[in-house]
Amino acid sequence: MLVVDDEVGIREVLTEYLAVHGFEALEAGNGLEALLHVKHARPAAVVLDLAMPRLGGLETLKRIRAFDPAIAVVIASGQLDEKVSRQAMALGARAVLSKPIELADLLAALGGTERPGQEPPAAPERRPGSPEPSLRPAGSPGRVLVIDDDPDMRAMLEEFLTGSGHQVISAADGVAAVREIVEGAPDVALLDIAMPGLSGLEALPAMRAVAPDVVVIMVSGAANVEDAKRALALGAFDYVVKPVDLAHLAQSLQTALTMKRLSM
Questions:
Q1: Which domains does the chain carry?
Q2: Is the pLDDT of residue 130 over 80?
Q3: What is the pTM of this model?
Q4: Separation CA 261–CA 105 (nearest Å)
């Protein structure tokens, strides 16, 4: 069993409750950690929050199901609406639960999941003759699309990213972003939330539809953190808050690039 939530208190409550009912639970605080646990520990089930940094919940769900469709995934999130619930079920979630979680409902959703003592399924073998995965170095540059209606913010990010060795293209609004994401073929997009016309939250689904392999990092004003968390639930990889902590942005960007190359 794996419990994935960026709130430590919620993880602790869930793991303790599950332990009482015979489940041995691992913990992860973000989507990236969750995928690492899934690949190495192969849990029978995952309890997954949606609004998390380092890979949004829906994207984590999709990758878990692609890795092993036998893993039961139960969504437990406070960032739910009918559309998100439908998306989660379409991606293969066993159940979708709203926070605050009724623990009895969680146990019922996990019914039939393996308990400790049962043999986990064997790890899949690599096909004979298939090439070993290869990655560029973790610190290698990528192609980054910067989307912000503030020219000073665009210029600052462009200067920082270019100085770090990345190729940079830019867009001033959501409509131009959708066009550039198709024509410019970036690895990663830095998407401002508060833009006139097509906002970041409105542009995100269109960008994901036309270029699902592009990793999107939301850039949020301090007043828009809840919107940024909602974007994570819709598939954004991470969010950074203005004024941008460039060290955090650099770390998030390299993690995103590494994850993208791991999935190739």
A1: 2-109 (3.40.50.2300), 143-262 (3.40.50.2300)
A2: no
A3: 0.58
A4: 38
